[in-house]
Amino acid sequence: MAPTPLPLEQMAGVGGYLPAGQEGGPRINTMSMSVLIDFIIQRTYHELTVLAELLPRKTDMERKIEIYNYAARTRHLFTRLNALVKWGNSVSKVDKSSQIMSFLDKQNMLFVETADMLARMSRETLVRARLPNFHIPAAVEVLTTGTYNRLPTCIRERIVPADAITPAEKKQTLLRLNQVIQHRLVTGKLLPQMREFRIKNGRVTFEVKHEFSVALTVMGDSQSVPWRLLDIDVLVEDKETGDGKSLVHPLQVNYIHQLIQARLVENPNALSEVYNCLHYFCQSLQLEVLYTQTLRLNYERLDDNNITVEEYVPGVKLTVSYWRDLKSELGYRLTVQSDPSEIGRPLAVVHVPSLGAKESAEVADRAVRSEHLSMERLIVHTVYIRSVSRLSDLKLEFQAFLKDVDFNLQGTPAILTVPVLSPCLRAEQIHITIDTHTGMFRCHVPKHLDCPITEEMQEALNTDRSKLPSLLSELRFWITHRRCEKTLQHLPATAVDTLTFLTLPEQELLQQGRHKIYVKLHRHPNIILVVQLKEKPTMANEMEYTFHLGFVAFQKDEADVIDDSAKQLVSVVAQPPSDIPKFFTKLMRLIEFDTFVATHGPGTEVDAPPAKQQKTIFPAYFIPELAHVVAMCDEKIPFMNLAQTLSKHNIPHSGLQVEANATSLVLKILALPQPGKSTTATGQQAQTGPAAAANAAAAETKPQPLSGSSAFPKIEPHVWDDLMRRVLSISVRSQTNKNSQVRIWVVEFVFYSTPLQSCHPKEQGSRRTVYLTYEQANHDFSKTVEELLNDWSKIVYLYTLVHDFAEQLKNKRLPLCDMLVVKSYSYMNLLLGYGPKKEVSCNIYWSVQSHGFRLTFVGGMSAVNAHSMMRDQLAQHLNQHHSLTQIAQILHETYYPMSSIAKLPVLPFLGIPRPQVPVLSFCMLAQSPCLMRLTYQAVYCLELRFRANRLLSIRDGASSRFERNIIEEFTPIQGLKAFLSKYVDESAAYRGRAPHEDDNPLSPMGMEDNYGGPSSVTGVSAGGSSPFLGAGMRGPQSPRDSGLRFPAPHTPPSSSNPHTPASPHPSAGGGGAAQSHGNFNLTSPPAPHMPHPSPGGLMPSSPLNPQPSPHMVHSPGPNTMYMQSHQDSPFTAMSPANNQWPGSPSMPRPSPRPGQSPEHKSTGGGSVGAGGPDRGGARGTLNRPWAGATPTLLTHEALETLCRPSPHPNKDINVTDMSPLERFLGCVYMRRQLHRNIQSEESLTALNSTEPGVVLFKVDGLQCQVMLNQMHMQTLHLKITQLPPPPDKPTFQLSPDDLLVIEQYFDTRVAAPPYRPNSLHSICRLLNLPAQVLKDFVQIMRLELKPEFGGDQLKWTVQMCMRMPPSAVPIVPSGNACVVLGRMKILFFLQITKIPYNGKDWKDSPSLVLPIVYDITTNLTQMAERREQVPSPMMTAASTLLRRFAEFNSQQNQCSLFPAITDLLTNLQLATDMPQPPPNQAIGPPVGVGVGVGVGVGVVGSSPNPMMPMQQLQPQVGPQGQVGPGGYPQLGPNPGGPQ
Q1: Residue closest to 1301 by CA, chosen among 1331, 1343, 1238
Q2: Which of these ranges, 975-984, 1223-1232, 1359-1368, has the smallest mean pLDDT?
Q3: How many CB atoms lie within 10 A of CB 757?
């Protein structure tokens, strides 16, 4: 049964517990309720735990009884606890009574104890409380002498020790004791083992190595005094298992000490007895240590199969056996034992089988007779000696069949190394050792641990050693295979043991079982190298290598037919794509190499000894013969393939050669064929000279050029001969790309100088080289040859241009050297530099893909190359005419105008036709080298023609040149002629005219077409000449006329406007028929003969000055037909001679004089001037819509002025600089959009205007006139006139100052850059408002234009948004007009910006965009809002101010718009710590003038009235009811605004 627990009253720690604060009262049995409950729970749990442990051992009935007793006790205990808890509810009264009784008991106890103490003091303490008699003599003695001599003598005798002897006496005593000990040792009998002793300090210490050390002394000098044993030290240690502790306990040492001391008494051989006792004990201890180490070694690291204790006799011997798996008659064991014949000898080691005496003694000295007593060292050293012995025997067996081989037996554990090859690395030798645990032989090759032969060899070493010679031979071949793989590791080849043959070849070499290796070349899949391995008969450790080159083909099965091309020598077998891959190999041919010849070529001797200064040591695993043969095949096979391919293309070559000093292989090509020319047998026989060798190699026919392109350049015989004379050599070499490690062909062309000298520093010598590279990875040598021929065609075709251009460049009569500079000519590319500083470049090269010349343009450091816009047109011109001189002239003449055109912006803009559709501002469309079209915002088009003498003509590109109507895509530019006439240089009109041209006025077609004619769509004339070179080259005529000249512009008659085009002259400027007759009718037959140019105007026909064909004429232009059918057109008046046939006798021929006379010049100059009689008539036609169709002649300087960005003419408009042309076109576009807006809006009424280019319309009570500024035609101006009111309906009238503000606002904010038409919609909607409301908008405009009118009380500036900002509240789509009228409400946007103070900058000022809604009917101004928007603090403050103004506005009879805005600008305050605005509310600097779009975005604030839905802001056509004059409520004027 479980022990019965004690009651709580008897538990320790429970009784005597006092509550806090009652420690001094009587001890009562009280305790805390929590402690009581804790005790009860712990006791219950403890009893339950005890039951759980004891019940399983009892019977079922006993378990039930115990459980019942436990439940009854626990129930009784918790019942008492429950009663105690219930009693605790009334314990407070008991506590009070208890405290009172305790206090009273304490007071009573204090009174009783006080009385008892007083009685004890009076009866016991105070009775003896008297002073003693003072001891005056002792006091006097102490105070006078400082000592006290009257103490009892017994204290000195019993307590104070006697005086010690002096150090001298101690020394004398010890020396005497040393003499006595020495005398005893000399006269006594001493064992040899105890001859090592020392006498010191009166004691003798004997030490026996590795056993013990003992100290003795004598207590007198008599011979009968026995030895006294002082100290014993056991020197036996166990450093492996002893953990550094002593092996003998101190109690054991004391026992031995007492035993020996007892034997020393009356013993004549006392010292021998000491040695015998301690020696026997130490040997027994050593054997015990060895035995313990053996057991622990067997238990922890080894098992019974490796080491076992066969016999152990304590204190006598220990026998241990090892190598139990090794079959032996006696077995391998060792015994450690004491010498039975002589007890004084140390432990001895006996080996079975026996070892030599020397080895056995060495083992004992190492393991037993040393400081480190270790059974493991004993066994290890024994195994090592056994291993060396067995390996020595094995070495003798190997020497029997391996002669002249250096064996090596060394190391611990012992390793026997056997070389199998010569030379042989140590890592490739066979390492044979013995397993220390089992005694079996183990062998491996360190470099080839996965060698399968080593397992068989290891088995033969342990069983049948007769198999060793054959296994060594197999291992020798196997290692040689691995050496081959290692040799090929860094070569593009792979060594394999077998190939997948469907049928085994008949060659004996390829039969199974032969020692051979197949080497697959990575770059040549159809080539294999067979390496045969043989052992040398005289030296088995050396190998011989025989090489065979095999040509294979691949097939998928036996039925697969091999192509005949696979049987060729070095051709690459191209495998067509097949569904079934071809895995099987078929041998086609097998060629044996002469190893000596292959390895002893030019500059190559593989086995030659290196020079003394070259210490080149190849590793043993590197086979130089194999590496050389593989590298030779890999290098030469591509050359042989390439040579075969060249022969197929009939290209002569000299075969594969080795360059000097054996640097590389080279294939010399003797000649290359002429591009685009197929040679025949007849042609080859007929040709002679330098080109005969090249033409002998017939090339494939060149493919035809693409449709629409020009023919190939004609290669003249003398040009071809000159090129062949310059070609010195063509060499093909093979290299490896350092970056991608890919093999490439490098073709080197060596030329003798060039016909065109360049300024490049690397192109100054006489030897010019061109390097071409081609990849070898695709094995398609035909493609390589074709690419070579294509690159050769690039050289030849470019040379045809350069050869002619070089002759013209050397001609000093032509100013080509002043126009350009040759930066580089590399036979493949021609780089020309031109421009003012010759820093822009043009690269010319032949393109094989497009079968024509291509041009690329590169800009300089300080200039851009604008000719990139007409790159294709210039290339087409060059491919048609094949003249670099014309290209150079065109580039030189068009550089300045193209650079000017390039300054026009080409960025896309939004919000022009539609807000979300981007439109390019300017788009340049080149149609020919001298014809350029400029489109502005996809609406207007300008046609520019470049002419000689730094002139060009501009006309409206919207007028068709082939029909009478207008091109649908574009709109005519009204006023273009008048605008361009302001930039006409009248003196330049006579710059290039001949003296006879003043009497022969030309029609517009003469100015229209000097290059290509109207029929030239692509910009190339029928005669194939340019306006710069079509008239031919003229030599210098006068000191003022030097260098290259061009056809001069025709001189208009004296009575015509100098800005009006002139009529054509049949031979004006000596330009030939193709240049002087622009009004031919192609339906008529061409004239059989054309007027010939004057000798003074043209040079004789030569290769440097080609003349155009006389049969190439122009077709009539559209203006000619237009003039014939419309007699009212100004073109007919300007073209009096437009119907004359070219070459008619009535047409005067050009003057033969090279220059003009002074009289003629003065006549021409005086007849045309600013004050001419026809100036007024001409001005009337300048603004006609069709006036821009006639070209206007401008200089390059005028075009630069038109295209260069410049400040705005109106200083009040602060915008980014724009070109005058962009400002003019923008104003014309705005005027056109205004006209369309007037036609689409019903509230605007269009009026007829007598002046061209003026838009006239009226609104309610106002007449508006929009016109261009005739001074510079770059700004739009609005003129507003107030109409007289009707007599029956008096209306509110705006003051002239208000009208002036509207006009200024239109000029500086609406019709200003960036020219957005939606701004016009907004201003038109404002003009249509009632006069009272418009008055307030005028006040806002005035405040925006002149913020100082607002006074000092304004804290914000205001700007009206004419277009919807993209970041504002999305009430209106971005970019649209942001003034919306609908249902008697006006929605508009204001941008307000905080005025900076305290020296702050405008960029740091916050800005807001506020959507304002003004209700005309209720005269209420508030902010628009959306339900889904979260108002920002700024917008909330603005909305609160407008709501407060609406509540306290007392003047209801006047418009509240401007007062509300003024109050907002005055009273809107910024919070000190403004929170971050939401994503749709940004705060930024004020917007620039003229932009009309705020940077910041407004968030709709709260409204004082119920939410006004956005549906109420839908625009409406008119008012819903007649409320006042004009359909709007009648409101009084607002006199409070600034005037």
Answers
A1: 1343
A2: 1359-1368
A3: 14
With beta carbons less than 8 A apart as the criterion, state whether 1415 and 1505 touch. Answer: no
Query: What pLDDT does residue 852 have?
Result: 93
- Contacts of residue 1054, defined as CB under 8 A and 6 or more positions apart, other chains included, come to 998, 1163, 1164, 1166, 1167, 1168
Where helices occur in 497-588 by DSSP H, the ranges are: none
CA 1223/CA 1311 separation, integer angstroms: 10
> pLDDT > 90: what percent of the chain?
27
For residue 1308, give the DSSP letter: I
Rounded CA-CA distance 958/966 in Å is: 6
Read off the pLDDT of residues 381-436 as tens digits, 9 standing for 90 and up: 888 888 888 899 898 888 888 887 888 888 888 999 999 888 888 888 899 999 88
Tokens representing residue 1059 in the block: 């800005």
Closest alpha carbon to 894 in 853, 862, 924 = 924
Of 622, 796, 823, 804, give the one whose Cα is nearest residue 720. Answer: 796
Whether a cis peptide bond, with omega within 30° of 0, leads into 423 is yes
In the structure encoding, which two tokens stand for residue 269, read together? 């051989």
The residue type found at 1277 is H
Half-sphere exposure of 1019 (CA within 13 A, CB side): 22
E strands of 1401-1518, at which residues?
A: 1407-1415, 1420-1423
DSSP string, 240-273: TTSTT--SS-HHHHHHHHHHHHHHHTT-TTHHHH
| Structural element, H or E, at residue 809 | helix 781-810
The tens digit of pLDDT for each residue in 715-756 reads: 999 999 999 999 999 999 998 887 877 889 999 999 999 998
Query: The tokens of 978 are what?
Result: 């008048």
Q: How do strand 727-736 and strand 348-352 relate by DSSP bridges?
A: unpaired
Which of 924, 908, 907, 822 shows the shortest CA–CA distance to 870? 924
Say if residue 1530's pLDDT is above 60.
Answer: no
Give the whole-angstrom CA distance, residue 1517 versus residue 397: 124
Round to whole Å and give the CA distance between 1245 and 1291: 19
Let me know: does 1334 contact 1294? Beta carbons within 8 Å: yes
552 DSSP β-pair partners: 587
pLDDT at 7: 47
Of the candidates 751, 700, 705, which has an alpha carbon nearest to the alpha carbon of residue 725?
751
Q: Which two tokens stand for residue 1066?
A: 């049949």
Pair of tokens at residue 1027: 């306006």
Q: Six-digit token pair at 620?
A: 């043993």
DSSP 419: -
- Residue range 890-904, pLDDT digits in tens: 999 999 999 999 999
Average pLDDT value for residue range 166-179: 91
Give the three-state DSSP class for 102: helix
Query: Cβ–Cβ contacts within 10 Å for residue 1413, how many?
Result: 21
Residue partners of 1018: CB distance under 8 A and separation at least 6: 873, 876, 927, 928
Alpha-carbon distance of 308 to 298, in angstroms, equals 7
Q: Which backbone phi and psi does 107 adopt, to 5 degrees?
A: -65, -40
Pairing of strands 743-752, 767-775: antiparallel
pLDDT tens column, 616-654: 455 667 888 888 888 888 888 889 889 999 999 999 999
676: left (phi over 0), alpha (psi -120 to 50) or beta: left
From residue 204, give the alpha-carbon distance in Å to each of 81, 180, 184, 218, 1430.
82, 11, 11, 10, 110
Two structure tokens written together for 514:
């032969």
Arithmetic mean of pLDDT, 188-213: 89
Q: What pLDDT band is residue 364 in, cutting at 50, 70 and 90?
A: low
Other beta carbons within 10 Å of 1023: 24
Q: What 8-state DSSP symbol labels residue 1307?
A: I
Q: Is the Cβ–Cβ distance between 926 and 932 less than 8 Å?
A: yes
Residue 752 DSSP SS3:
strand
